[in-house]
Specification:
By secondary structure, the protein is α/β, with parallel strands linked by helices. It contains twelve helices and eleven strands. It has three domains: 3-97, Orthogonal Bundle (Arc Repressor Mutant, subunit A); 102-172 and 277-300, D-Maltodextrin-Binding Protein, domain 2; 175-275, Periplasmic binding protein-like II (D-Maltodextrin-Binding Protein, domain 2), CATH 3.40.190.10. The protein is 44% helix and 22% strand. The longest helix is centred in the first third of the chain and has 28 residues, at 70-97. The mean pLDDT is 87.
């Protein structure tokens, strides 16, 4: 914007524009004053100031009222557009303030996305169809970092406490289970200790995933190592590898049940205490989140997790 344009914008006030529109639509300063609940002399002064600012006459004044000059007709057109734009802006901002509309950036772990978020976010969008949610899948450690750095408004992950600046709220629980071919004798067990799986080849996830870290830490505590044959990037790929004889794997039991059609496989829950995990909501400050993000947080903690299909 040029300096002269900035100066012009500063010299035009919205109240004068609103009163001028009323005069143009009513064809009378007196009727415009009645419509806007203001003295006629004040309206006349505002219009005169506009004419002085613009350097041109806006009204033809006569005994029967007023008529717009060509410049006045042009100003009426533009003033209506400006006032309409302001009304539209006010309406949209009030929707943001009410949490009805907005944009929320969410980073979440694979476990949260596969097990819980499709249903939870589907219900939220059903309530607030004009809200835009940008959802990205990341490792839990990356989720925490993104929220701490402001790249995401909200995170859902297995919080490690590595980012002490973050606030944490409970979201869901899950339990890890061993996934193996149904033909193996171990598939008939009601539960199994993780240490008893260390004689098998494993199909693992990303080395920095919360599941992979938990498995290697548990093996190290037992003085053992995980016999890793292959790493994959997704739970469906893990199931396909296991179904084709490449080893066993560990994933959340509910996630497996949601993918129960993948291969002739069974899951056996791990007895280990660390296999019961908590998925948390993380934010820098829940109280200062934008209204739409706060509405999403309230929604996410409102519903219990739906039941996964049994196998």
């Amino acid at each position: 914007m040029k300096p002269t344009e900035r100066s012009f914008a500063r010299r035009i006030d919205l109240t004068s524009l609103q009163l001028f529109v009323a005069v143009g639509e009513e064809g009378s300063i007196g009727r415009a004053a009645e419509r806007e609940f203001i003295a006629a002399s004040a309206v006349s002064k505002r219009v005169a100031d506009l004419e002085s600012t613009l350097g041109t006459a806006l009204l033809y004044r006569h005994a029967r009222g007023v008529e717009l000059t060509p410049a006045g007709q042009s100003l009426l057109h533009h003033a209506r557009s400006v006032l309409y734009g302001l009304e539209k802006m006010q309406g949209e901002l009030s929707e943001y303030a009410d949490g009805v509309r907005g944009h929320v950036r969410v980073h979440a772990s694979m476990s949260a996305i596969v097990q819980f978020l499709p249903e939870d976010l589907g219900r939220f969008i059903g309530r607030h169809p004009r809200v835009k949610i940008d959802l990205e899948e990341h490792l839990s450690s990356e989720v925490e970092r993104a929220v701490a750095e402001g790249a995401a408004d909200l995170g859902l992950c297995n919080a490690s406490g590595a980012a002490p600046r973050l606030q944490v709220r409970p979201y869901r629980h899950d339990r890890l289970a061993l996934i193996l071919p149904a033909a193996r004798t171990e598939s008939a067990l009601a539960a199994i200790d993780f240490i008893d799986t260390l004689d098998f080849d494993h199909v693992g996830l990303h080395a920095n995933s919360s599941i992979s870290l938990a498995l290697h830490q548990a093996a190290a505590r037992a003085g053992r190592a995980v016999r890793l044959r292959i790493r994959v990037t997704g739970l469906d790929a893990m199931c396909r590898m296991i179904d084709n004889g490449l080893g066993v794997g560990v994933m959340p039991e509910r996630a497996f049940r949601l993918m129960h059609g993948t291969g002739n496989l069974r899951c056996v829950p791990l007895r280990d205490a660390w296999a019961a995990r908590r998925i948390s909501l993380v934010a820098r400050d829940f109280d200062t989140l934008p209204p739409t993000a706060r509405a999403l947080v309230e929604h996410l903690v409102e519903y219990p997790a739906p039941q996964a299909p049994s196998t």
